[in-house]
Design a protein that fits this description.
It is built from ten helices and eleven strands. It is an alpha+beta fold. A hairpin with a 2-residue loop joins strand 5 and strand 6. Helix 1 crosses helix 3, helix 2 packs antiparallel against helix 3 (about 145-160) and helix 7 (about 230-245) runs parallel beside helix 10 (about 280-290). It is globular and about 55 Å long.
């Protein structure tokens, strides 16, 4: 088999979440599948559809539904070629340490930890497990915060206990990563971290990674699932929540300190990302601060 280089995919969960969940239907056709990897563990459930499984050295096809778990840094393609009527795909991605560096090392999580180890070779779960857990996995898209974490843990515990599964990449797979792609993403994130309080133009950031603006925009959206502007604004809002909780700065000063030159634009984005105004966010923190 020809060992193609896999591209690092940068996954960014929504604001306030440590788990990325996305549900796609037959009406969605955003991204074409490509050979990639990421440090996040990936759980994929398709209830009605067909496609190709290409995980490490494993290649096979499915023509109805599937439930698979892919471990950290295992290269793979996107899976669904076509979702049938009323069909959907639920994609769940999370880092192995999303609950802390040692959470899954405690005795109560031994089964789940073993599941994560098996997932490094890719796991295909059989029909009975799909039937029992499919609706619970779909519900992950409907809940948030603590409820999502608890539901995910219950799903992982059930997956850890079942015996009807197949290891897809039993022989292992040696792959080379696109080191230059990883380096580009690191350069971009470092530049955002150092300059988010100022305006960062697309020309400026594209020049940092030696790309044209159109090529950079395509590359960045493919690698992170977000536009560069959205990611910068998310970074600024996260910093704003920190300042609102840890300082006595006025909300206007917080906005400008985070790189927003337009106060109304800051308010709009803050509510869009957090679900509440900056004023309400601070008021709800007041009992904790004093």
């Amino acid at each position: 088999m020809i060992k193609r280089k896999a591209t690092l995919e940068k996954i960014s969960p929504n604001f306030g979440s440590s788990v990325f969940v996305k549900k796609s239907t037959s009406n969605d056709n955003e991204h074409k599948p490509y050979w990639h990897f990421h440090p996040e563990i990936e759980l994929v459930y398709v209830n009605k559809g067909q496609g190709k499984r290409h995980i490490g050295s494993h290649l096979s096809y499915f023509n109805n539904s599937q439930l698979i778990l892919i471990g950290s840094n295992l290269p793979h393609n996107g899976f669904t070629d076509r979702l049938t009527q009323h069909g959907s795909e639920v994609l769940v991605q999370f880092k192995p340490e999303f609950l802390g560096a040692y959470f899954f090392d405690i005795p109560e999580m031994a089964d789940v930890n073993a599941l994560f180890e098996r997932s490094k070779n890719g796991i295909l779960f059989k029909p009975e497990t799909k039937r029992r857990l499919g609706k619970k996995i779909q519900k992950l898209d409907e809940v948030e915060g603590f409820e999502r974490i608890m539901l995910l843990l219950k799903i992982l515990k059930k997956l850890a206990e079942v015996k009807d599964y197949e290891i897809l990449n039993a022989d292992g797979f040696v792959f080379e990563t696109e080191l230059q792609d990883s380096a580009k993403i690191d350069i971009v994130y470092k530049h955002i971290n150092n300059n988010f309080q100022n305006h960062i133009s697309l020309n400026e950031i594209a020049d940092k990674v030696s790309m044209t603006v159109p090529a950079f925009c395509r590359y960045f959206k493919k690698a992170t699932g977000k536009t560069f502007t959205k990611l910068v604004n998310e970074y600024r809002i996260v910093h704003a929540t920190k300042l609102l909780s840890e300082s006595q700065m006025s909300i206007a000063d917080v906005a400008f300190d985070c790189g927003f030159n337009n106060f109304s634009h800051f308010n709009k984005l803050f509510k869009e990302f957090t679900g509440k105004s900056a004023l309400k966010y601070r008021k709800e923190l007041t009992p904790i601060m004093y």
